[in-house]
Amino acid sequence: VAKTSLTSPPWPEVKLPDPVEEAKYHAAEVVRKVNGLISAGQYGRLFAVVHFASKQWKITNEDLIMMDNVLEAECGDRIRMEKVLLVGADDFTLIGRPLLGKDLVRVEATVIEKTESWPKVNLRFWRRHNYQRKKIIANPQTVLRINTIEIYPCLS
Amino acid sequence: MVVLSAARWLRSRLSERFWRVQEVLKYARHFRGRKNRCYKLAVRSVRRAFVRSTKARREKKRFLRALWITRIEAASLEHGLKYPAFISNLVKTQVELNRKVLADLAIYEPKTFKSLAALAQRRRQEGFLAALGDGKEPEGIFSRIVHHH
Question: Which biological processes are named by the entry's GO terms (chain B) (predicted)?
Fold first, then answer.
């Protein structure tokens, strides 16, 4: 039968690799290689994306983080951040769906200082209506320093 | 003798007017023109500045989100994906990264962003394949396609 403009669909034909073969390749090649790299310690600086204080932060070692709220921990306490979404180095990244396992990554931080922010002025003013309300807000802040990010070779 | 009210030549006048005026002028020192020196003009400018800063604090969030979206769109177009395709496929693979972090990764970790774009592209292809079905012709008498050989 002759080929017309409607014999094949207008979008490009895409052949996806076989799922069984791909699972084998993934388990054998990729996981083994990455595990090897991690256990040999052949990664430079690690960065991680951590969900903390209802925000996501992209952090590395020796990083300073400032949160706009109070943390119930004294200054100098070591904290372990558990909700890690992504860890990466130069050659590989581990993407969590949505979180990575706690036996895979360890992010440690120390509370450095607990202060208040600079006094912000909240002013509401309607002209010609004699309405003016002024409020000075100084919300509490906490500064953390990320000490280390460690990964362990327990991929599967 | 008993004095019930003060004498008329006795007035209570302000002695700390200087500091009250400085409290307002200190917020106007970096303004342009006479409103950084003259109290009457400075009061109006400082009031408008405070009102604008309170409103801007609410709009900063909208503005930053639009900026992140623009950056993610530019980065994903470099890898051949449009922004809605990228974000929707990333969400379907249960990767819960927000736009702020995605924009930071696009700037500072290009290899990681490339792998995320590849992940989204692969999920997109799988979605299309799942939606298209087998590719055979539909059954039924009236929907049969006639072949001329």
Answer: translation
Quote ipTM for the complex: 0.90
Closest to B132 measured CA to CA, from A8, A117, A58? A8
pLDDT of residue B121 exceeding 90: yes
Q: How far apart are CA A93 and CA A34, in angstroms?
A: 9
CB-CB neighbours of B76 under 10 Å: 24
Structural domain spans, chain B: 16-58, 63-132
Q: Which residue of B has its CA nearest to A51?
A: B97
User: For residue A155, what are the contacts with CB-CB under 8 A and spacing of at least 6?
Assistant: A31, A34, A35, A38, A94, A104
Q: Smallest Cβ distance to A14: which of B111, B119, B125? A: B125
What's the CATH architecture for B63-132? Orthogonal Bundle (1.10)
Q: Please identify which residue in the block is written with the tokens 């202060």.
A: A115
Q: How many CB pairs under 8 A join A and B?
A: 67
A44-52 average pLDDT score:
94
Q: What is the pTM of this model?
A: 0.88
Q: Exposed/middle/buried for B112, CB within 10 Å: 0-12, 13-18, 19+?
A: buried
SS3 content of chain A, % helix, strand, coil (to 5): 15, 40, 45
